[in-house]
Amino acid sequence: MLLLNVLDLTPCSSIKDLVKQLKYAAFNARRLGKAFEILEEALQEQSFFFIGLAGALTPSGMRYLIAQLLNKLPNSLVVSTGANVLHDIAASLGKPAFHVETLEDDISLSRRGLMRIHDIVTSADAYVEVESLLKKVVEELPAGSYASYEIVKALGTMIADEKSFIRTAYERHIDVIVPAFIDSILGLQFMSLTSVKKGVKLDQVKDLQRILDAQFIAKEKSMKTAAIILGGGVPKNFIYQSTLIAEKPLDYVVQITTDVPEYGGLSGATPEEAKSWRKIGEKAKAIVVYCDVTIALPILVSALLQS
Fold first, then answer.
1. pLDDT tens string 18-62
2. Structurally, what CATH architecture does the domain formed by 22-83+147-183+201-305 represent?
């Protein structure tokens, strides 16, 4: 057993220098420092990155950070919830989420056409704007079956906002898969629009094939693979399960979550558990940072951009 001193941290003007110190601290500061170290190594090894976006991160102020992360990691694939895509589009169309100075009761908010996401609200108008853009996409699509990433790519072509992560993904040729597309308002809108325009259909098997292709290509090229899991949920499982078919366990994993393993849910399942499934390699470098993504992500992305 090797014993190392816990070091007193020194204030820094550089976020990168501060984060590099954190691995010498304790608790989740140490985990965050190790997460940065793992991501730096994965970058140096020219790994292929799978980025999982759970929940509704984009309306919380994270969307430009995610866009910048994609600029830093152009060799990647994104797996997201529909909510993140929808709110990214809404903000790009001038309908962002916003704070309210004095939080009203939820029934009052509902009557004003406002929907609450914890401590922020979004308006019904935002969803109308998104549906209008989606309608243009659907009307321009030739008859056929489309994966969610093809629909998101088409939406990305219609957005000019540089802070949009789906616009950045389009420009960087990064596919954004939404495996639970129909489990979102975006999916409901698509279903409604395609019931009017016949011949355009959703094919989520193509989404699965896309991520499997990425895994097999990485395997054929002997590339290392890395996963950045922001939250957990469907994006985490979709990324992890793709390793099984390709028999290509992940080499690097960083997960940021507030979920814990004791309740048996996938979101809180540890990297060690994933090793028993051979989703993560035996010698892989993996860490879970138990922290709110809206705290840890700005720190990690800022440090990576200074790398």
1. 999 999 899 999 999 999 999 999 999 999 999 999 999 999 999
2. 3-Layer(aba) Sandwich (3.40)
